Amino acid sequence: MLSPLAANIVSTPMVQEFEIVKVFDHHNRGQFIFARQVNVNQSFEVKEGSLLGGITIYHYVDMPRMLDENGQPRLDVFVFRPLSLKKFPADYFQEGQIVELVVPE
User: pLDDT tens, 38-89?
Assistant: First the structure.
């Protein structure tokens, strides 16, 4: 039985904003979404059940080898992969669009 204090604790998901940089379609591996973390100083993790723009994504994240205009590594860009291999409509994610990464507790 939970104590009255524990019963009042509600876990909330972690939410962060990302800007869509590019969507890459691989013919047999599905879509890969390159997105820039808006608040670079915030740490995050991707867990099972995480959503990016309302789409369930694999519970891993990768960093592409992407360089800025000065030839420096872009440490603010990550690659996400939808859990489903079905192709989303071309206009679902658009360059410059701000989406939320929602990670369950």
Answer: 998 888 889 999 999 999 998 878 888 888 899 999 899 999 999 887 777 7
Residues 33, 78: Cα–Cα separation, whole Å: 8
Domain 4-103 - what CATH class?
mainly beta
Sheet holding 77-80, edge to edge: 55-56, 51-52, 98-103, 14-26, 30-37, 77-80
The domains of the chain are located at: 4-103
Give the Cα separation of 64 and 49 in Å (integer). Answer: 23
Question: For 94-103, b where at least 16 C-beta lie within 10 A, e where not — what string?
Answer: eeeeebebbb
* DSSP state string for 24-52: EEETTTEEEEEEEESSTT------TT-EE
